[in-house]
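pinging the channel bc i need a second pair of eyes. not urgent but kinda urgent?? the chain im working w is below, pasted from the shared doc
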Amino acid sequence: MPTLADVIRELESIYDPAWAESWDAVGLVCGDPAAEVRKILFAVDPVAAVADEAIEWGADLIVTHHPLYLRGVTSVAATTFKGRLIHKLIKNDVGLFTAHTNADVADPGVSDALARAVGLTGPLTPLQPSADDPRRGLGRVGALSAPVSLAEFARQAADGLPATAGGLRVAGDLDRRVQRIAVSGGAGDSLLGTARAAGVDVFLTADLRHHPATEFMETSGGPALIDAAHWATEWPWLTDAARRLTSISAAKGITVETRVSETVTDAWNTTAKCEDLK
């Protein structure tokens, strides 16, 4: 039976913590490295619903994309939701491990899975390559097998991503023919200029704010924009991460059972018109 330390070693061989941003907090959050691990749940967010799912399934470890803590703390008392989560995990012998920005820039990483989910084919290249390795980096650029209208691509992307209350927001001429696409899992505001410089037809990402998006569409004359839910753009990575861990572990004689959480942890759970709220 593999230990938590064994599993962490394999995860960090895939998603090297040295690749993480300096402000990030990745790696083991709680758990005994000597504990045995049989079942691993993969999820985007470390929240109560995911912890409950892990406990009900009998998981020994949760691997999340988003960190639980990004800043130093002086207490994990169960007076906050994060403290309560830590208490619940420890009481039920469930470890928590995070692969965040190190998974974003990995090859393959979060944006590779997003690109495949929305139908990009052929080779993928980083939108913003890492300084130390051009094969890694933020975002991905790829192509559709044939040109389609922006409206058709938006429908294809919506079908390929998990459903959320907000769906997809599209900026651009819906009849425009598009083929070369850039994607970036998670918040993509910082890559708007990079997407323009890449000469793509569409940039699909999440968390685009009003003013940057408006200025981009007014001044760039460049890519159309598709804004998806943050959670939805990162969820496809879970299957890839679970598959890679299972494969590399099996090659070394380590057997673990993995499961991808389908719990929707997007912060928004409905949309409504003002008249619907009266």
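so The chain has two domains: 4-100+235-259, 105-228. and Residues 119 and 144 are 6 Å apart (CA to CA). — does that match what u expected or am i reading it wrong
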